[in-house]
């Protein structure tokens, strides 16, 4: 009888947490990629799991090597998590080539997660393309039309549309129709690259409307992993039941806070990471 009561108590006290999957590359420096995704998901109240598409040799100063994961193992990771975990939302980041994009697109269509956020990682900070043209075409044709929202920065928006990189908010607005035509349900065009502006504003593009999501620009050198963090927080909030606009606003608020606290960290000699766990920094000693 005592054992039965104990079992009942355990069931009653159990906590259901939304599960969010990140499909992306691994950052050995811990500031971006899979590592940033799981930190952001955890900090915003979800359980993060992962499928690794590539292993990067990376730190705060840059990427020195990329090793794509064999296709069969990408597929087996996807099958493993989808057949066991109740994945509510998926965030997709770095996909190394067209073949991996095809595998991921096939599995997304097979398992049909409720929410899909795509951060189209395709342009390095230097301006160099991280994906070949065939892979960019595959991303546009096979994955982006499946997304609830994509989150390109300005160089990525330019690559997706064939337009010049916007130099102002007016030019960001000029890109709206072309981004909408990509087929995702929504687009968040991120304005962080307009570094001369006092604000870091993004444009949320919906099927028949658009709105500016405003935030003050944070002066910090620790900006590594901002795109990964924002899109992962967005997927986390969607998994928790927020509608798309609410998820975007909450994710923008979260990334602004991680940037505001980023200088509390002293990680590496280059562009350090944002502070994912700023709200719980009083660690147990």
From TrEMBL:
One of its GO terms (molecular function) is ATP binding. The keyword Cell inner membrane does not apply. GO terms for biological process: thiamine biosynthetic process; thiamine diphosphate biosynthetic process. Pfam families: Phos_pyr_kin. Keywords: ATP-binding, Kinase, Nucleotide-binding, Transferase. Pathway: Cofactor biosynthesis; thiamine diphosphate biosynthesis. One of its GO terms (cellular component) is cytosol. It comes from the Bacteria. Residues 27-275 form the Pyridoxamine kinase/Phosphomethylpyrimidine kinase domain. Its EC number is 2.7.1.49. It is an enzyme of class 2 (transferase). Coiled coil: none annotated. NCBIfam families: HMP-P_kinase. This is hydroxymethylpyrimidine kinase.
